[in-house]
Design goal:
The chain is an alpha/beta fold and 345 residues long. Helices cover 33% and strands 18% of the residues. Helix 3 packs parallel to helix 4 (122-131). The protein is built from eleven helices and 13 strands. The two termini are 15 Å apart. It has helices at residues 19-32, 49-61, 85-94, 122-131, 151-166, 180-188, 199-203, 227-237, 255-258, 273-283, 290-301; strands spanning 3-7, 11-14, 35-38, 72-78, 97-102, 135-137, 172-174, 193-197, 244-246, 310-319, 324-326, 329-331, 339-344. It has a single domain (11-309), classed as Metal-dependent hydrolases (TIM Barrel), CATH 3.20.20. The strands form three sheets. It has an eight-stranded parallel beta sheet. The protein has a three-stranded antiparallel beta sheet with strand order 1-10-13. The structure holds N-carbamoyl-L-aspartate and zinc ion. N-carbamoyl-L-aspartate binds at residues 15, 41, 108-109, 138, 220-221, 249, 251, 265-266.
């Protein structure tokens, strides 16, 4: 195959940051995707409907003119111990907020204000269930005695399984799943539970973090896992099961903050997102499954229409730039200086 045309995809998990950083990274996403679920882990976090509306306006304000009516940010709220149920009603009524993000406190970048105890959120989760507003989950426990590679599995057992039992009608997206345990959990759960899968977790296993030395640009959370887990994610992605769909978790940090004695978690993939997914699907000989994964299943879960236009990818080698401009700093994209075999026209 030398060319594929698919319905324009959406990114169901994206970090855009703010201000000049937002201006720098937004065009990469808007060029490829029609819509994206925008993560609320800013400093300070997006905890109210008013803050989400203001953030949405800032995103639209820096959208390049050529892409003005082609990209829609789908906003989210950041769940805290104190998010009032009334805020859920306001969020739903806004019409532009499509989910509420659960970060266990301390799990990842800018998650300090996250949830310390699920029980504190029961009334709010009930309001989400009643108002049909999905919960988007960063599925890792934060206990320091749990091995970093087991944090997702332990989260399923301790938090997610009980949550689905207590709130059977709550729609849940298990974000950026990284283990076969997470895949198995989502498969056996009700149709109210779905998952996003990143391109980097489809393409890399944990060896990539230690390839001839420590590789900070391959560090993200949840951290890359063993090859058996990558295989399970790939099988889920190409299975045609509508519970699994595209979410890049593209998460830009400056080169200085990545190449650091305490480097930030996050891999930037927006520069080549759909090309990276195409690479993974081609390796699994399943390019015919890419369109539904990238363009249909996520929209269906979020109860939004499919996009009406198309994108085309050509089989064409190109070299990923060494670095990108990032608000006066440098951003190192995934596969910098390496060659990719698919290019979006
Ligand atoms: C994300 C970020 O940098 O905001 N980092 C990451 O490694 N994925 C946060 C997150 O989604 O966990
Ligand atoms: Zn994320």
């Amino acid at each position: 195959m030398t060319s594929i045309t698919i319905t324009r995809p959406d990114d169901w998990h994206l970090h855009l940051r703010d201000s000049e950083q937002l201006r720098a990274v937004l065009p990469y996403t808007a060029r490829q995707f029609a819509r994206a679920i925008i993560m609320p882990n800013l400093k300070p976090p997006v905890v109210t409907t008013d803050m989400a509306l203001a953030y949405r306006a800032r995103i639209l304000a820096v959208l390049p003119t050529a892409l003005q009516s082609n990209f829609e940010p789908l906003m989210t709220l950041y769940l805290t111990d104190n998010t009032p149920p009334a805020e859920i009603v306001r969020a739903k009524e806004s019409g532009v907020i499509h989910g509420v993000k659960l970060y266990p406190a301390g799990a990842t970048t800018n998650s300090d204000a996250g949830v310390t105890d699920m029980a504190k959120c029961y009334a709010t989760l009930e309001a989400m269930e009643q108002n049909n507003l999905p919960l988007l989950v960063h599925g890792e426990v934060t206990d320091s005695d749990v091995d970093v590679f087991d944090k997702e599995k332990v989260f399923i057992d301790r938090i997610l399984m009980p949550l689905t039992q207590r709130f059977p009608s709550l729609r849940i997206v298990f974000e950026h799943v990284t283990t076969r345990d997470a895949v198995a959990f989502v498969e056996q759960a009700s149709s109210n539970v779905a998952a996003t899968i990143t391109a980097h977790h489809l393409l890399l296993n944990r060896n990539a973090i230690f390839q001839e030395g420590i590789r900070p640009h391959h560090f993200c959370l949840p951290v890359l896992k063993r090859e058996i887990h990558r295989q399970a994610l790939l099988e889920a992605a190409i299975s045609g099961n509508p519970k699994f769909f595209l979410g890049t978790d593209s998460a830009p940090h400056s080169q200085a903050n990545k190449e650091n004695a305490c480097g930030c978690a996050g891999i930037f993939t927006a520069h080549a997102a759909i090309e990276l997914y195409a690479t993974a699907f081609e390796q699994a000989d399943a390019l015919d499954k890419l369109e539904a994964f990238a363009s249909f299943y996520g929209a269906d879960f979020y109860q939004l229409p499919h996009n009406k236009d198309f994108i085309t990818l050509n089989k064409e080698n190109w070299v990923v730039p060494e670095q990108l401009e990032f608000a006066g700093e440098r951003l190192i994209p995934l596969y910098a200086r390496e060659s990719l075999a698919w290019k979006m026209t």
